[in-house]
Amino acid sequence: TRRAVIIGTGHYLPERVVENSWFEDKLDTSDDWIRSRSGIERRHFAAEGQATSDLALRAAREALARAGVEAGELDGIVLATSTPDFTFPAVATMVQAGLGMTRGFAYDVQAVCAGFVFALANADAMIRGGLADRVLVIGAETFSRIMDWTDRGTCVLFGDGAGAVVLEAREGAGTSDDRGILASDLNSDGQYRDLLYVDGGVSTTGTAGQLRMQGNLVFRHAVEKLAQTAHTALDKAGLTPGDVDWLVPHQANLRIITATAQRMNLPMDKVVLTVADHGNTSAASIPLALSVADREGRFSAGDLVVTEAIGGGLSWGSVVLRW
Length: 323
Ligand code: ACO
Fold this sequence. Notes:
By secondary structure, the protein is an alpha/beta fold. Helices cover 29% and strands 26% of the residues. Strand 12 (304-311) and strand 13 form a beta hairpin. Helix 2 packs across helix 3 and helix 5 (215-236) runs parallel beside helix 6. The longest helix has 22 residues, at 215-236. The active site is at 113, 250, 280. It holds the Pfam family ACP_syn_III_C. Belongs to the thiolase-like superfamily. FabH family.
């Protein structure tokens, strides 16, 4: 069986760190409220002039270096973002140019906070289908550019950043113990558009718009759907939550993550947490968490890793892999 294995990870966080207390004299909010309701303590914001592709390129370079792969050895780039530099071309092509690549494919995937899970499943399908041997998968966002700074229910929750992984095809023996991506589960339900959306766009307002969210409703869907999709992906791989070594969840809210771990019967020491330091970086949150945990040496070869995410659409999904 041909499988896609993660052979390198990388990430980049903009230099500017903003603590919760920064919001206290701008809005009717407090460090205590943000911390206790979301688990977020600080987040990074991109500098003026620093675009999504700039963050993505830095994460990409680190992932390639750690994988020991030259840009010219890649067959393609799949990049998840909802905050592209421009309407087109795809941010992925700007990263491609930045890496000095002139061959292979490069395109963006847009599934908001679930974007990286969708991109990873997409790249995995291409590798298994024989369209590519090596794919760079990136999640990169500058959500600070679509915040309504007067809405305390949203602007305290998000941050900027980028993470990347290099996927490489490996021929395995076909047992569930083989390394690589074992199964994925992807879902969308567009009837929930109004729960989480950006109120602008090229074909409507002609503006970039700002993020609008009914947080408590999204919260309820998240708690139910994240455990469900993780179970489904595990089931497809012939595995159960008892087999899981690491849960690497989308980092939106500590209470959502804790509830999902509970529903999967997983102790919190098997859960990778970066939400306190990064906030919600949308499609960047999972590759950021993977890269940070990888850097800390937390994953061993053969560990069963489950990622899951939900975001605007609603769109949600899970990818199960052996490290
Ligand atoms: N500071 C102080 N009070 C606040 C703040 C704030 N920053 N924000 C909201 N409040 C108030 C509300 O106004 C409300 O007050 P009221 O009762 O007087 O009306 C009260 O706090 C409770 O508000 P809720 O929204 O019910 O609070 P909740 O416990 O649900 O927490 C939160 C809000 C953190 C947004 C939570 O709902 C959440 O995390 N939701 C999910 C977010 C998410 O996962 N999004 C999906 C991914 S994002 C993507 O795809 C882009």
